[in-house]
Write a structure and sequence with these properties.
The complex is a heterodimer. By secondary structure, chain A is α/β, with parallel strands linked by helices. In chain A, the strands form 2 sheets. In chain A, strands 1-2-5-4-3 form a 5-stranded mixed sheet. In chain A, strands 6-7 form a two-stranded parallel sheet. Chain B has one domain: Cytochrome-c3 Hydrogenase, chain B (Orthogonal Bundle). Chain B has a 3-stranded antiparallel sheet. In chain B, strands 4-5-6 form a 3-stranded antiparallel sheet. In chain B, helix 4 packs antiparallel against helix 5. Chain B starts with 17 loop residues before the first strand and ends with a helix. Classes of the chains: A alpha/beta, B mainly alpha. Chains A and B meet through strand 3 and helix 3 of A and helix 1, helix 8, strand 4, strand 5 and strand 6 of B.
Chain lengths: 167, 407
Amino acid sequence: MALTNEIIQQRLIEKFGDQVQQFGEPFGMLTFEAPKDLNLKVLQFLYDDEVLKFQFLTDLQAVHYPDNKGRELAVVYHLHSLTNNVRIRFKVFTDILTPDVYSATALYSSANWMERETYDFYGVNFVGHPNLKRILNVDEMDYFPMRKEFPLEEQTRVDKDDEMFGR
Amino acid sequence: MSDHHIKLPEGSIEKLTTTLNLGPTHPATHGVFQNILELDGERIISAEQTIGYIHRAFEKIAERRPLYQITPLTDRLNYCSAPINNMGWHITCEKLLGVKIPKRVDYLRVIIMELARIADHLICNSIVGVDTGAFTGFLYVMQYRELIYEIYEEVCGSRLTTNIGRIGGFERNFTPTAFEKLEKFLREYPKVLREFENLFTRNRIFMERTIGCGPITGERALNYGFTGPNLRAAGVDYDVRVHTPYSSYEEFEFDIPVGSTGDCYDRFLVRNQEMWQSLRIIEQAFRKVKEFKGKDAEIFHAEVPEYYLPEKKDVYTKMEALIWHFKIIMGEIDMPAGEVYQSVEGANGELGFYLITDGGRTPYRLHFRRPCFVYYQAYEEISKGAMLSDAIITLSSLNLIAGEMDA
């Protein structure tokens, strides 16, 4: 029997009760969230469960929602169960002042650099990461550039006198 | 003792190992990234990678751009097979917008994507040849990569960073010359590929250099997030084209070549086999394209006026077309809100696009899942204990593209 999103959702609810929530299926991919202290427990459960077998970490990144007070940063995991060929998306939200999230490096070696990249751009502090330092930006950088408080230049700005490019 | 002695860092005389900086601008790395190797004689004890030398903040830039302006950014990820990146991005946008793509466009895209895959594998495999000391193969096949680039040129006007296609299809129909060039390529290339294989596959020197060099088990490869030919060389038959088909790949018949040991030799063989499979796919797609007759043979894009630039002569003569043209160019079209993940089988593995929109005119967040970036972190593990010269072959046979790594 093919693994459907309903079965995954049911198994997660059986295991974690109402701590996993916000289930949705944007464009067919099951998406849900859990409290950030539970992230490793959920990942481990998804990894070990004999039916689900989500053993491939496709991608890991963060998203910044500045208006979401207390839950500004979302860490998003894309997992793939290769045996069932099903993908899911799992999110944890964290406060931007104490952005501590447990590191998944013990479970997935691939999470190492993905978490470093996420730290580099969003400042998510992955607790338990073996080598959490910047990866793409210079080490001396003292801010996290992908956060929304660093806007790119406004396209319509008029204060800049630039004769070469006609602004 | 006089004061004229050169001052060496403390402990550097007593140290028994050598530190070697391989890169960032070493010709053998074929890209701008650094490996700090700790060597005991010629054996590698540890390797530390530094990347980010050509980081261009594409994800940040993309947050200020309408969708069609992001296509040129994707070109510069894996620039050896830019059309796959472009198509992947278009497919992502089309998924978000719910555009239905005509079959003919799907087939034309498949042709272009498979040509790009051949071009990429060709570079990678011939570079492995160069690093093992065989320059001939590299120079010889360049001529045939050129044929592929001429096809790109005929379709979109550029060669390396192609910006090929638009959301909804292609910017113009394939010209008869494009098809002629494709036919020429299909006619001439198999012979060359066979010769290329003859040069390497059973070559004693090549085999001795690459067999058992930089191996990885399937299990470790999965744990490290390997995808594409590198994963298949380790014996795992995961291919996005088969597992989550896009662009009508489910209609084509092809095999997924797999290796067993995951070493440089297997990676080489898998890539070579994949080129044959790509040729098979192109031939099938070309046959399907030729079946379209009359009006159907002129379909080269879907009807998405909000995103597909109208033809220039319509812009000058029709009100509607002028309005859409203006709105598209000025980026004044609001996208539907949503979050979408779409991946395509890039030449190096699963190239994923994670796009979040909040209903505005630009993406709220865009993340590229770059296969190179994910699997390069395994380099330390697979090169530990190897000889320095093997490490260099491993580097080139993993097909690391700095542009893709750094985004």
